[in-house]
Each structure stands twice: as structure tokens, then as C-alpha cells.
Amino acid sequence: MKRNRVIALFLILCMMISLAGCANPIRMVKNLFGDDEQAASTIIENDPNGQGDVQLRDTVLYYKDDKGFLIPVMRKIPWTEGIAKSTLASLVDNPANRQDMESIGLLPVIPANTQIHGMNIENGLCKVDFSNDFLNYASKEEEESLIRAVVYTLTEFVTIDRVQLMIDGKVQKKLPFGTEVSKPITRDNINYVSAQQSKDKVVVYYEGTTNGLETYFVPVTKAITKSDDLGVNVIDALDALVEGPPEGLGLYTQIPKGTKVISVDVNNAIAYVNFNEEILKIKDSEETAEHVVKSIALTLKEQYNDVAAVKILANGKEVEIGTSQEEEPLAVPTFANQH
């Protein structure tokens, strides 16, 4: 009897090992933020290292181009414990990170050899502690760009809305070129290009390139002058977009000169943007048309979070601009750039 029981247990053990070998379970990794972060889109991909399936998160990181502009780029980052910390590590200037983005001419923003000592997230506040190498930059412009890149990248996570910077465990009053960092920092003034300061500002999207081949969309903050006290509205933003970027910045728009915004109406999450007839002068190119509509859609998104699609009109009549307008309105893109 005892011998039979041993044999039975042995057979059961063999069956369990066999079943485990046939299974291909998804490797689920607990991350720093818990269930709240599941609102971000994820995909499952095969791990080329043979460690099973890997869950990836669509994550926006802010790189810089050769003109110093910050460029948001969606990357697929593996879910790991402390994903926000590993995301920042992807922005440290080292050979691997440079090679990763060299095909589109973008650069990591955090100075070389910087270590991320630690990170804590609670009630929307992210405290991030860098090594002293974080301060290895040469100008106030680089200082401000670095801070914004860190803040904008971290606040892409739904659990973070402000960031407290620390150096070697201590909160600093000011950084070497005078930027105040004693209090938590929020998103503000990305790629500010206006000569004057103003309480009324809009974010619009122009195009840029570093190699003349790959193009990307650049969020730009522009000051505007209001004749009333009603606050900034979507027409103000689109007016700022169609006037084009200031000269000499290396940015451009393919919206025809002379284009004017007549009206914007939103119905069932579709924005109907009515321009004058100059909008019809868009080059007869599918790519050009799509870029124009995308820059309009991204600018609208800064004003209307609930807009899902865009339809272009000229003097009140719907027009077909490229294949994107032939049947359905163009969906507002989730991300400005992807790589």
C-alpha cells in the first residue's frame, strides 16, 4: 500500500512538471504605481531573450533636438518595478541611449554619468533624487530645458502631477544658473518661443527635422495678446498656429500662408474647423495634407481633451484634404511622435 502511494505521488509530480513545461504564462510584473497606472495602454510581446512574454507600456519621453527643443516621443517601455525611474534612465546621456535615437537625430537630455538615487511617489508628488552629475550643463537654457524634460516626462504618468527635484538627497533652493527648485514643479512653458512674457499663452504644434529626412512634431508655447478677459480659447490657439513659428528657429508649418480661422464647432466629439479658402492651397500631397491636419489636431487637443476627431472646412464646406479626409474625420492622434 505504501509503495503504491509513493508511485502515485511520483506520477502526479511528473504530470505537474509536464504541464508546467507546456504552459506559456504571461510574466506579470508589479510596478511602482500599482493598479492606477493600468490606465496606460499596454501590449504583450515575446521576449527575444527567451524569458517569456513581456508587457510593454506606451510611455512618452522628452528628448532634445539639435536646436534645443524638447520633443515628446512615445516609446514602448517594459513594465518593471519602478517604471518611472527606468524611464528617466532612458534619458541619461550615454552611448546606448544616443544610439537608440540617432536615426531621428534626437538626443538624451540628462547629463552623462547621472545616477538616479531614488524616487518616491505619493499623492501626485514625485520626489526624485539625482547624483551631482545632474548639474553638469553649461547654460541657463540647458538648465531650464533639463528641468522641463524631467518634469514633462514624469507627469506623463497619471499618478504624477508635480515633481520635487533633489540632489544627493537634499532639496536645493536654486540650481547653478538660478532656476528655483525649492518647491514642486509642474508643467509650464514648454519650448517657449515668444520674445515677451504674457499670462495668456497657447501650445501649438509645428514641425521640425534634424536630418532633412525624418520629421517630428514640436510643442511650442506662444504668448498671445487678448482684447478681452474671457481667457484663451481654441480660436486663439489656432490663430497662433496658422501665423507660423518665429523666423530663425528651424521650425515650420505646411499650412498655407494667408489661412485664417473662421470658426470651430464641436459636435459628438468631432471638431469642425472652418478656415477661409486659403486652406485649399495645401500641396497636392497626401503626406503634406496629413501633416497639416495632424498639427491642427494636436493643437486642438491642448484645448479640448474630449475631441476625438477633426474635420476641415473651407468657408463652411467640408473639403477632402488627402486620403485622411475622404471618408472619415481624422482621429486626433494619441501621441505627437512615435519611435
Automatic annotation (TrEMBL):
PROSITE patterns: PROKAR_LIPOPROTEIN. This is Germination protein M. The keyword Signal applies. Keywords: Signal. Residues 1-20 form the signal peptide. SMART domains: Germane. The keyword Signal applies. It comes from Anaerosolibacter carboniphilus. Residues 84-176, 234-323 form the GerMN domain. InterPro entries: GerMN (IPR019606).
